[in-house]
Amino acid sequence: MKTQVLVTGGTGYIGSHTAVELIEEGFDVVIIDNLSNSQESVLDGIEKITGVRPAFEKFDLCEREKVKAFFQRYPRIEAIIHFAALKAVGESVKKPLEYYRNNLVSLINLLECMKGNVLKNFIFSSSCTVYGQPDVLPVTEKAPVKKALSPYGNTKQIAEEIIQDYLASCADDLRCISLRYFNPIGAHPSALIGELPTGVPQNLVPFVTQTAIGIHSELKVFGNDYNTPDGTCIRDYIYVMDLAKAHVAALKRLLENKHKSPFEVFNLGTGKGLSVLEIITTFEKVTGVKLNYRFAPRREGDIEKIWADPSLANRELGWKAETSLEDTLLSAWKWEKYIRGKNN
Ligand code: NAD
Ligand code: WQD
């Protein structure tokens, strides 16, 4: 019988790509999502790609009784990959309590309700945002967690602390891997699933593809006076399917008891820092589309530069981000054209 895995937030961006990868690796996927930032039609995309439609339960993980009843209905679940969260940094500054409630109550409900002999494996979606502006680059997992720059970032830090405190308190053989993502971009190569930002995208690559297709007249490059080679900010952009594969590797590590402590943390990045201008010029080169961009003032709260040292994940998970930036940006462009009904 296939190992059953709960993917919370599984109709969302990273969750849906991971669901595809899990199904293709032979897992039985069950998704919980309240569709607050995704659509049920994502399940059609997953089914078209894999030939399997995952079980889907629509409810809010903040509703404890529903979470409890869910685990009674699905006693075979052996692992949880917990993606569900609100993730818009700017919105979190305006609605901090909504973010703390949603991201932390959902986590506590899952931890409280997952008790049992079978279900002891937990994978958490964390973020490089916990490092703030690191003093040393590339950043390793040993770098200090810095004061969060937003309520969103703080939910990730607090969540990691909640998990660690809980693991230390319980006699059960619970274990957790916290995966700190750098900047996930791109879409499944089929273009049947991808990132669906609501409203005006805050993230660079969706704004790039939307500008290229004509939704926005110009892309603003936030700041060109940073202390970087071309003056624009540097990030570690990782292809979402590479990220999805890392989740499968982390899951197998837990299921096969290969973890070295009950709480492990891995950076998921490429190890390569790229500037905003490098993203723009590579996008233009691979798509042949000229981007109308201009330099604008710095965006408040942006850090100057960050990229990962992913060697721990490379070594321990036996995983590496392998897809080129060119292929990754092409996948994002293919997806943008697909959702706007332009297939060539
Ligand atoms: P997403 O918004 O596309 O997916 C999250 C999903 O969770 C959505 O489908 C949403 O409807 C669902 N959800 C939110 N709150 C819920 C609740 N209370 N109950 C049930 N479902 C709920 O986001 P994503 O980009 O796929 O991010 C997934 C995870 O990865 C999040 O935890 C996010 O913080 C983390 N992360 C994302 C990035 C990024 O740049 N995308 C970077 C680092 C970490
Ligand atoms: C990348 C670069 C912008 C848009 C965010 C979250 C972080 C994490 C990942 C979840 C920056 C520049 C952007 C635009 C631009 N998410 N930019 N013009 O800021 O690294 O991180 O996503 O955990 O918590 O804060 O990603 O894609 O927003 O920006 O010039 O229109 O692109 O200034 O330098 P960021 P991003």
Brief characterization of the structure:
The protein has eleven helices and 13 strands. It has helices at residues 13-24, 42-50, 64-73, 89-94, 96-113, 151-169, 204-212, 240-255, 276-287, 311-316, 325-339, and strands spanning 4-8, 28-32, 55-57, 77-82, 121-127, 175-181, 183-185, 219-222, 234-235, 237-239, 263-268, 274-275, 293-296. α1 packs parallel to α2, α5 packs parallel to α6 and α9 (276-287) crosses α11.
What does this structure look like?
This protein has 344 residues and is α/β, with parallel strands linked by helices. It is 38% helix and 17% strand. It is built from eleven helices and 13 strands. Strands 3-2-1-4-5-6-11 form a seven-stranded parallel β-sheet, with helices on both faces. Helix 1 links the parallel strand 1 (4-8) and strand 2 (28-32). It is globular, with a radius of gyration of 19 Å. Nicotinamide-adenine-dinucleotide binds at residues 9, 11-15, 32-38, 60-62, 83-87, 102, 106, 125, 127, 181, 183-184.
